[in-house]
Amino acid sequence: MKYCLLGKTGIEISAVILGTWQAGKSMWTGIEDSQTLRAIQAAVDAGVTTIDTAEAYGDGHSERMIASAVGHLRPGLVIATKVHCHHLAFDQVMEACHRSLNNLKTDYIDLYQIHWPAGSWGSRPVPVEETMRAMNDLKRQGKIRAIGVSNFSESQLREALCFGPIESLQPPYSLFWRHVEKDAAPFCRSKGISILAYSSMAQGLLTGKFGPDHRFAKKDHRRRNRLMQPEHFRRVQDALSRLRPLAQQYGVSVGQLALAWVCAQPGACAIAGARDGVQAEENARAADITLAPEDLAKMDAIGRTVADHFDDDPVLWS
């Protein structure tokens, strides 16, 4: 496993981060707690030291799964969680943080993130100054070690920075979804802000396991993923067919190749979810893949045959 620093904090994080949205069960299908526990344990055993979650993932269920799986290993882990956009008023942030601390069975959170900007998903437009005042208070109290944001544009990130240090941005980012490259990524790199890429395998699309006739269950949020829509599937399948020989050349899966590409981007780490221990181990091994510059360029070009057909809306779901 490769490791890097979180922003300017000196906190060391793993290049592949375990994402635990699916551990919350809500908006997913076929998730079993027993498998989730094994996935979290297997990821840590494989060298993953950083786990990302959120209060919104199953109304705290994901956080509780992390505590059950690896709570006894807390000193050696970096735990990142998020406050939801419906809880961004000062008192709501404080209450949400304490709920997360209780769920995680810990007395500190390494990275506390604003999940979506205020006003997203019908939430109240709380001034970011108020939210950041709460975040800074939590940091002064030692309840969080660092502040991050998720799904923020460059302009939103710049505004938040007026009220305190931001160590990370968590955007959707993969070979097939590249909006952050045109917006916040250059700014993040200039300021030493880490990019924690979520959906780095395009919610499973870059594993190659979903064919053009695949249909997601009604309760699976991926039905609304813009990459999964029929009008894009031909380009997706063509791109996957061009990536497979490259993966074979490196002796890895297409999913591992996609994660390695994200990890190779300056200042970026890849968040990858896992349903079971096997997936968790495979994802962790992607951090050890070193891609040649010419292959990175080739993958960039292949990815753009999909990514360049989307508009400027940065939200992954319709």
Q: Label the CATH architecture.
A: Alpha-Beta Barrel
CATH topology: TIM Barrel
Spans of at least 5 consecutive residues with low confidence: none
Strand content: 5-15%
* Spatial order of the strands forming the largest sheet: 3-4-5-6-7-8-9-10
N- to C-terminal separation?
35 Å
Structure classification: alpha/beta
Number-wise, the strands total 10
As for the number of domains, it is 1
Order of helices and strands: EEEHEHEHEHEHEHHEHHEHH
Given the structure, what is the number of helices?
11
User: Main beta sheet, described?
Assistant: 8 strands, parallel, barrel
Question: What is the molecular shape?
Answer: globular
User: Radius of gyration in whole Å, from Cα?
Assistant: 18 Å
CATH superfamily: NADP-dependent oxidoreductase domain
- Give average pLDDT, whole number: 94
In percent, how helical is the residue content? 25-40%
CATH class, named Alpha Beta
Could you characterize the architecture of this molecule?
The protein is an alpha/beta fold and 318 residues long. It has one domain (3-205, 256-290): NADP-dependent oxidoreductase domain (TIM Barrel), CATH 3.20.20. It is built from eleven helices and ten strands. It has an eight-stranded parallel β-barrel with strand order 3-4-5-6-7-8-9-10, surrounded by six helices. A two-stranded antiparallel sheet has the order 1-2. The longest helix has 21 residues, at 230-250. It is globular. The mean pLDDT is 94.
Please specify the SSE layout and strand pairing:
Layout: E1 3-5, E2 12-14, E3 16-19, H1 33-45, E4 50-52, H2 61-70, E5 78-83, H3 90-104, E6 109-114, H4 128-140, E7 144-150, H5 154-161, E8 168-170, H6 179-182, H7 185-191, E9 194-197, H8 230-250, H9 254-263, E10 268-273, H10 277-285, H11 293-307
Parallel strand pairs: 3-4, 3-10, 4-5, 5-6, 6-7, 7-8, 8-9, 9-10
Antiparallel strand pairs: 1-2
Helix pairs in contact: 1-2, 1-10, 3-4, 8-11
